[in-house]
Amino acid sequence: MFVRPKKKLGQHFLTDKNIARDIVNHLKAQNIEKVLEIGPGMGVLTDFLLENNDYETFVIEIDHESVVYLRQYIPRLEGHIIEGDFLRINLAEKVSDKPFALIGNLPYNISSQIFFKVLENKDLIPEIVCMLQKEVAMRIASGPGSKVYGILSVFLQAWYNVEYLIDVPPHVFDPPPQVQSAVIRLSANGRTELGCNEKLFFRVVKQAFNQRRKMLRNSIKSFSPRVEELDSILLTRRPEQLSVEEFIDLTNNIERLMTGSQEQGVLSREN
Asked: How large a percentage of the chain has pLDDT more than 70?
C-alpha cells in the first residue's frame, strides 16, 4: 500500500531515512512521558520515535488514507493514533493534561496556524522539533534587526528558545516542494509570566508589525493620544529593532498611558 500525497493537505512525504533519524535525534524530550507527532504520513519519523522507550509516541493525522496505512503497517501505534485536525482538537483532552513534546514535518500551508495553537497551549508543550519551509524557520529563529524578524518571532521567542538546526533540500521529499526546508527546535525558556498584560502585548506586537515600515510613533498612536510621552528615541525606532523584553516594556508603558488617559477622562467628567 502507498499513500498518495494530497496537495490540498500540503503533503510532502520525507523519503530520506537518515534525515528522519537526524530530526528525531534532535528531540531531547526531557522529563516528559509523551511525544505527539503531527502529520506522520507513512511514518518515516514515527519508526524512529518508536525506537525510544523513554517516552510514549502518539500521532495525529487528518488524512484517513494515512491512518489506514499506519494501522496496517505500524501495528505498535494501535491505540496511539488520533485521527483529526491538530488545529481543532483539545490537546489536554485528546493527548495529555501533562507536558508533552511535539515533532513533525509540518504542512507548510498551515505552519503559522500550528504555532499559534502551540502558543495557546504553551504550558503543555515545552519542546517542539519540526521541519517547515526554510523562510518561516528563519523568521522564527531570527532576532531583532533582521529583515525577517516579525510577529511570530516575538510571540514564540517570548516563551521559547529557538535553534535553527539543519537545511533540508527538496529532492528528499515526495513530491519535492518548490521551496527549501529547514528543521528548528523550540524549547521552553523557563518564563512563567510575561511581565505585562499578555492580551495587550499581542495587540501591541501585531499593531507594530502590521505597519512595520513606520516608526513606532505612528504605528502605536491608536493605543493612546499620549504616546508622545514615551521615550523619544524609542518612538523613532521600527518594530523589527525591538527585542522581546523591549516589547514587554513598551506594553507596560502603553498600559500606563491608557490607564492614565482613562483616569483623566473620569476626572474631567467629574469636574
From this structure: 96
Q: Are 36 and 101 in contact (CB under 8 A)?
A: yes
Q: How many CB atoms lie within 10 A of CB 44?
A: 19
Which three three-digit cell numbers place residue 38? 503531527
- Reported as a single tens digit per residue, the pLDDT across 225-266 is 889 899 888 899 999 999 999 999 999 999 999 987 554 443
All 3 cell numbers of residue 72? 496496517
- Asked, as a colleague might, if the bond just before 175 is cis with ω within 30 of 0, I would say yes
Domain boundaries defined on the chain:
7-188, 198-270
Residues 49-85 have pLDDT tens digits of: 999 999 999 999 999 999 999 999 999 999 999 999 9
Query: What is the separation, in whole angstroms, between the first and last Cα of the chain?
Result: 79
SS3 55: coil
Region class of 39: left (phi > 0), else alpha (psi between -120 and 50), else beta: left
Superfamily classification of domain 198-270: rRNA adenine dimethylase, C-terminal domain (1.10.8.100)
Identify how many contiguous H helices and E strands the chain contains and give both numbers. Answer: 11, 9
Give residue 91's pLDDT.
97
Distance CA 42, CA 69 (A): 7
